[in-house]
Write a structure and sequence with these properties.
Helices cover about 25% and strands about 15% of the residues. It is of the alpha/beta class. Strand 14 and strand 15 form a beta hairpin. Helix 2 crosses helix 6 and helix 5 packs parallel to helix 6. The chain is globular, with a radius of gyration of 21 Å.
């Protein structure tokens, strides 16, 4: 018996009386939500009771990382299990450079072949019509899709249209300055796309409650609408924040995060109503660190918590993300874990839980022991890897408590010890040449060459 199948068989030997052979899996991905934006991660001003409940009833991870510091590569890493130096899409470029290909294997395709009904609701960013159609969701393992294909389209949360599979669905919003890809600013704000996505998610869960399903709920909250300039945080109402003595854009941001929280609460309530709570795994996270777009300042809500940097940085503020897993009866409740893991690990973990074969050519490992409360010391032994291609190629790596950053090709490595310096303030490279040498050796071989994503000098 293959290892993945053996682990799954042992794993599901525990109280099987009310559990099917395969768990339902719901992957919820926020968009630009910072490490410090949730109450369970120290947020004091924004109310997130449902996400805090998720943490109380499951595991809250304090050292979980995205696959990148911006959207498209983070999602490519998440879907393919390959880190940012080996995944197909390594930056926000558009066109064929930002599209998965037919030969790529995704979480969705693995689960689909394992008998799951699969749905993507929300933002995709890894394929589009025209030259990038090889990456369309239904060519990458999803049975159904509702949302945005193009990430620039996804900036507009009041679009005039969305995609359902490969067909455009017209909405009631009007967008006078709409571009061909669908970005722009609505002048009537009739239908808020994240609310439509939440309703679609609930509908999918109801329809699939009797069979194993995989729902990738990729909301666009709390991303800004960049076309809106300093008024780019769009939300239907401010709710309890309306009368706060805060800048308008920050009130809107808080209302946006609380709206995401309410959407998660609706999902939790529905799982309980349908009686499928104990056979459904929820994994919640964010695609990268907090943004400084739409007129807001991350420091106002301390959105990166104790970390340094934000979106587009390779310090931990740009890549360490909130991550919570809940599965009543299987995942221990109320646990905080300092296990070090990142997005490439999601694919092999989901494959293992589904009893599927784990592909050989990936960079992640199966987190089943960690999810079930067991020690997994090997997570600290390995090297994690990131690269970022805006303004020249930057690289970063982590092994155990050590973190190395190279800000441009050939530049001297910076070295930080995160267990003593979480904000990455003190560069220890000169004091530990042996550790620097170890990271240098890893970084020289970690990536594969890509014609779309070569190493570039800073401009």
């Amino acid at each position: 018996m293959k290892l993945a199948a053996l682990l799954a068989a042992l794993f599901f030997a525990v109280p099987a009386s009310a559990r099917p052979d395969k768990p339902n899996i719901i992957l919820i991905l926020a968009d630009d939500l910072g490490y410090g934006d949730l109450g369970s991660y120290g947020q004091k001003k924004i109310k997130t009771p449902h996400l805090d409940r998720l943490a109380t009833e499951g595991i809250r991870f304090t050292q979980a990382y995205s696959g990148s510091t911006v959207c498209a590569p983070a999602r490519s890493v998440l879907m393919t299990g390959r880190h940012a130096g080996r995944t197909r899409v390594r930056g926000n470029a558009g066109g064929i450079a930002q599209a998965l290909r037919a030969e790529d294997t995704t979480i969705a395709s693995i689960l689909q072949h394992s008998g799951y009904r699969t749905a993507l609701i929300g933002k995709w960013g890894l394929g589009d019509t025209g030259e990038a159609e090889s990456g369309l969701p239904r060519k990458q393992g999803f049975d159904s899709f509702f949302g945005y294909l193009n990430q620039r389209h996804a900036h507009n949360t009041y679009p005039s249209w969305l995609w359902r599979d490969e067909q455009k669905v017209r909405l009631k919003n009007t967008v006078p300055n709409e571009t061909p890809v669908g970005s722009g600013v609505s002048d009537n704000r009739a239908e808020f796309a994240p609310d439509l996505f939440a309703a679609e998610a609930l509908s999918f869960i109801r329809e699939q409650k009797d069979a194993p399903f995989f729902l990738y709920f990729a909301t666009t909250i709390p991303h800004a609408n960049n076309a809106g300039g300093s008024n780019g945080i769009e939300v239907p109402e401010l709710g309890e924040y309306e009368n706060r003595d805060w800048p308008p854009v920050e009130k809107a941001f808080a209302a946006l995060v609380s709206r995401l929280d309410r959407h998660v609460g609706d999902i939790l309530d529905l799982l309980n109503e349908l009686g499928i709570d104990d056979r459904t795994l929820i994994l919640f996270s964010s695609d990268n660190g907090p943004h400084r777009e739409g007129g807001r300042r991350p420091a106002f809500f301390d959105s990166n918590g104790p970390l340094r940097g934000i979106k587009r940085d390779l310090t931990d503020g740009g890549i360490r993300v909130p991550a919570i897993a809940r599965w009543p009866g299987t995942i221990p409740a109320g646990k905080t874990s300092d296990a070090i893991w990142y997005f490439p690990d999601v694919l092999p973990t989901f494959a293992s839980l589904a009893g599927a074969e784990i592909p050989d050519n990936i960079d992640g490992v199966d987190l089943t022991p960690t999810l079930t409360g067991k020690p997994q010391p090997s997570l600290s032994d390995r090297f994690l890897y990131w690269e970022f291609h805006e303004g020249g190629t930057k690289q970063a790596s982590r092994q155990g408590p050590w973190k190395a950053i190279r800000k441009s090709p050939g530049a001297k490595l910076e070295l930080y010890r995160l267990d003593r310096d979480i904000a990455e303030k003190t560069d220890l490279a000169d004091r530990h040449p042996d550790i620097v040498r170890r990271f240098d050796e890893f970084l020289s071989t970690a990536r594969t060459e890509s014609p779309e994503w070569p190493i570039r000098e800073a401009r």
